[in-house]
């Protein structure tokens, strides 16, 4: 386990743990309380997704605790050293590093410090090709759950291209069985969209709804 991981528990992404870190920074870092309040107000006003607000706030908290001072008081060499430490740490994901950079960039732009924002490294989007299952693999996958509810949800996620968080927020009223479509509300970046509901999945959903009456 890395020193960063061990000392601050930064990889624990539960909201309660993040709140504990923020409270700790408010006590230990001069001026942090006002900075994080302004940061969260601005990022919320710009209608960023809750997950983004959480990740960026956490990244600002972490670097503040690391140096025991606000990012406004950090020298460029300190920021570079910090980012280098994150990049070298094999326990931390590329997404974690990305949030650290983007969080700092947003923070500096709040205070009109564009020169400091653009000094931060540009990040490449390494898009990986998706793994495509064979028909035989899909059959085994969908037959694995023993309960009808689990089979239907798994099939719905795959066929409609939904995120797990989107399925968790899905309501029966969002499903239009007559038009064979699903209304996905306020998903990533607070955007809504419609997706196709296949006839096969529609039958499974109706069977589950009529039987379980959720």
Automatic annotation (TrEMBL):
Protein's UniProt keywords contain Cell wall biogenesis/degradation: no
InterPro entries tied to this protein: DNA_brk_join_enz, Integrase-like_cat_sf, Integrase_catalytic, Integrase_recombinase_N, Integrase_SAM-like_N, Tyrosine_recombinase_XerCD
Presence of the UniProt keyword DNA-binding in the record: yes
Annotated Pfam families: Phage_int_SAM_4, Phage_integrase
GO BP field: DNA integration; DNA recombination
Keywords: DNA integration, DNA recombination, DNA-binding
Domain Tyr recombinase: from-to ranges: 128-214
Gene Ontology MF: a single term: DNA binding
Similarity remark: Belongs to the 'phage' integrase family.
Name of protein: Tyr recombinase domain-containing protein
């Amino acid at each position: 386990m890395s020193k960063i991981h061990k000392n601050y528990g930064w990889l624990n992404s539960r909201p309660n743990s993040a709140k504990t870190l923020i409270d700790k920074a408010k006590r230990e870092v001069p001026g942090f309380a006002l900075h994080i309040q302004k940061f969260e107000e601005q990022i919320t006003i710009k209608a960023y997704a809750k997950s983004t607000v959480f990740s960026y706030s956490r990244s600002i908290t972490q670097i503040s605790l690391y140096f025991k001072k606000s990012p406004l008081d950090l020298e460029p060499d300190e920021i570079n050293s910090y980012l280098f430490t994150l990049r070298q740490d094999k326990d931390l994901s590329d997404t974690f590093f990305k949030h650290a950079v983007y969080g700092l960039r947003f923070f500096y732009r709040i205070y009109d410090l564009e020169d400091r924002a653009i000094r931060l490294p540009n990040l490449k989007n390494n898009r990986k090709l998706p793994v495509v299952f064979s028909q035989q693999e899909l059959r085994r996958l969908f037959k694995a759950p023993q309960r009808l509810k689990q089979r239907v949800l798994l099939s719905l996620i795959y066929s409609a291209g939904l995120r797990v968080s989107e399925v968790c927020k899905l309501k029966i009223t969002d499903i239009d069985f007559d038009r064979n479509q699903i209304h996905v509300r306020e998903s990533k970046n607070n955007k809504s969209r419609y997706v196709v509901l296949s006839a096969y999945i529609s039958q499974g959903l109706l069977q589950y709804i009529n039987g379980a009456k959720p």
